[in-house]
Amino acid sequence: xxxxxxxxxxxxxxxxxxxxxxxxxxxxxxxxxxxxxxxxxxxxxxxxxxxxxxxxxxxxxxxxxxxxxxxxxxxxxxxxxxxxxxxxxxxxxxxxxxxxxxxxxxxxxxxxxxxxxxxxxxxxxxxxxxxxxxxxxxxxxxxxxxxxxxxxxxxxxxxxxxxxxxxxxxxxxxxxxxxxxxxxxxxxxxxxxxxxxxxxxxxxxxxxxxxxxxxxxxxxxxxxxxxxxxxxxxxxxxxxxxxxxxxxxxxxxxxxxxxxxxxxxxxxxxxxxxxxxxxxxxxxxxxxxxxxxxxxxxxxxxxxxxxxxxxxxxxxxxxxxxxxxxxxxxxxxxxxxxxxxxxxxxxxxxxxxxxxxxxxxxxxxxxxxxxxxxxxxxxxxxxxxxxxxxxxxxxxxxxxxxxxxxxxxxxxxxxxxxxxxxxxxxxxxxxxxxxxxxxxxxxxxxxxxxxxxxxxxxxxxxxxxxxxxxxxxxxxxxxxxxxxxxxxxxxxxxxxxxxxxxxxxxxxxxxxxxxxxxxxxxxxxxxxxxxxxxxxxxxxxxxxxxxxxxxxxxxxxxxxxxxxxxxxxxxxxxxxxxxxxxxxxxxxxxxxxxxxxxxxxxxxxxxxxxxxxxxxxxxxxxxxxxxxxxxxxxxxxxxxxxxxxxxxxxxxxxxxxxxxxxxxxxxxxxxxxxxxxxxxxxxxxxxxxxxxxxxxxxxxxxxxxxxxxxxxxxxxxxxxxxxxxxxxxxxxxxxxxxxxxxxxxxxxxxxxxxxxxxxxxxxxxxxxxxxxxxxxxxxxxxxxxxxxxxxxxxxxxxxxxxxxxxxxxxxxxxxxxxxxxxxxxxxxxxxxxxxxxxxxxxxxxxxxxxxxxxxxxxxxxxxxxxxxxxxxxxxxxxxxxxxxxxxxxxxxxxxxxxxxxxxxxxxxxxxxxxxxxxxxxxxxxxxxxxxxxxxxxxxxxxxxxxxxxxxxxxxxxxxxxxxxxxxxxxxxxxxxxxxxxxxxxxxxxxxxxxxxxxxx
Length: 1000
Prior knowledge:
With about 1000 residues, the chain is an alpha+beta fold. About 30% of the residues lie in helices and about 20% in strands.
């Protein structure tokens, strides 16, 4: 096997090369006396005690941000500093905005009938305090990076000198949105504007005017998003500035809808105030602010920002007009701009795919690096090279994939070459295509003659390369065909052996009998699931009934059941404005559970384990979303005496087919070629989808292909070794189906010498088989209650008790924890507290528990995006207006990476998912905007505390390899298997789905 050629990953994150020169800013505190007076107004308006109310400062902050581009940062009024600016902005200008804000938030007659009006005199009394120059004073502050400190564990301290860390993202965002600064993306020219971050701290920019993609006479608009935020890494003495890149799609088709159930769509608004240079002395670009738009019987603004902005500069469109013609509201050539984000599920759909391919991400990152090169540099990690002893380690499950809907491995045939006539025809088609490209290229208004000529020459060079590659195809040689055929035979042999291994694993982990039930809506899905079971297990026939494997004493039974009324909406209000309360939801779920039990009890009784594959409509079908019966059906199957675990599959091909057939029928026509092609593409995915669903179900039934032993040559690791995944099932009152918060800590355990998978959760005292834990957690799991300190105490107490159980105490154990999931309650996992010297459950000093190792993982927005660099090969990249030769990048690198500066930090990168586009290295968003793209996310591994004789790298390797130990295709899990299984236990706790995200 040849060694990897991509041995370096470059993060889309920057670190300072040196201390920055001291920089002066002006800071403004929100006066304490005004806070008290405002709370009096809120208490009177809301008819609530003063100590129970907050100040509606959000709309004021948003209005300031939209109206005063000169402000660098706007914080919370209870923070030490409220506003930061490079100059002293006149207080009288701020006072005008304060006055509009008071009138909007505290009107004489409130539009909400449950709230009281506030008199003009009451508002004026507060206004006098706000405009008093003794209450509002700008004070000079100086940013000095040399003053930044470290915590005791060596991690950069970003709280003690908060000014610098707060300001850094906004300072850089202001620099990147300079009105004279233009970036290149492929050959497009883009400019960034500051905007309000969707969530959390940091700064955000969007490209404007938007980019566009036209399909079937409709133009779809989208922007590039840059999100800047400061992150710390444990034991690393410097912070890093993370630069995430994504796509934001704008609603672009007339008569756009809104999502049901009160889900908001963010509307970005850019207005321009003509209040003089005092508000914007440096000529910063205007700021896009965000106002949520929701459906409440009609489209409405969900906060006061739009009304407040309307006071300064009239917004020309109402919510109804924005939905009726969102492209008109974009106002591409002027200001104001009103841009409604597109979210999955909005009708009509958007044809631009999610995500930004690596070639574009790299081009932007390198341009930003070039711009900031005097002070900042991109961060690189190098490949950590290791080997696994494949003979002694667990053999990864590797089931060859069938070819499309044929359900077979394609038999290779010797390829014939082209005739001269075929070659000439293909050549002419290429020449015609290239001529069309040359005819289409036009000079843009924003580019000079020289820039246009350069772009035209680049097109000619590209076309010349295409012509050079256009060679006549010759007959395949016998030698090449034999190599391909040998590979086919090897895959056939592998398919046969993996089927046997899977059957043996089922017998070892479950027992002699397994029944798979298929509860279906569409016969096509039912048949595909039967085929998937046949394919995976090597059944003689793809039929229902009993299938015996006498050699391994295993019986598999397949039976089907039309799902019928179970797939109907829950008996809850379908009025989008009348969200049911927790009691109503509980009753609806209870009713559906009873319906599940009634049908199951009428079926023929079975012995042995039962797993259920359930076909159910996708989330876009359920309007409002609280009518989705999935959680209720799942809980119905785990009821006592029903005892089934389940896996759901969405019939995307059938849903799309019904949608297009309805449209065609309404228009009196047949399905067009484009519609049929989309349906066929989804149909082609069905075999892979159903196989994956079946394997997922087996995993939930605790089927493990082999004991998860990992052997590193020449390294002595404990054997047996216990792997434990810690997870906190955390359902807030909003995401719980019965409207109550649920906090249930769970652990999942595996051993390197066993196929058994066990779990434990708060509420039971003994470890039980994993599938039994799934069935029991909703009934027997005990949610932890109390104030924040009590929650911390109880959750840490659970962890400590579990580590002292006889199954773990004194045993070599690797404990895996997800930082984002549980650090709020086990604060030792936070960057500033995690220690190499031992673990902490209270105020005691770190203590090393015998034979325990702890590795913390995190991802999901807290780890940077990346691209891999080739050791030798180069490619040309356009940075601003210059073509530069840089390392060739890869879109599919996997492995473990580290840095010399921190021996406890590793980056784990999994395989490129099989669902990602199989495009070549120079695939750009502008080549195929319709294609989605998602890069494998970095999983950061922090090897926290290990035993004195241990090497950190060995435990990083184990954690990385545990991502590949699942019963599935060769795709890598997002987390190590024990953490993955622990996280999945949350699916069996009563809950509803959270809102979908606009970030892509």
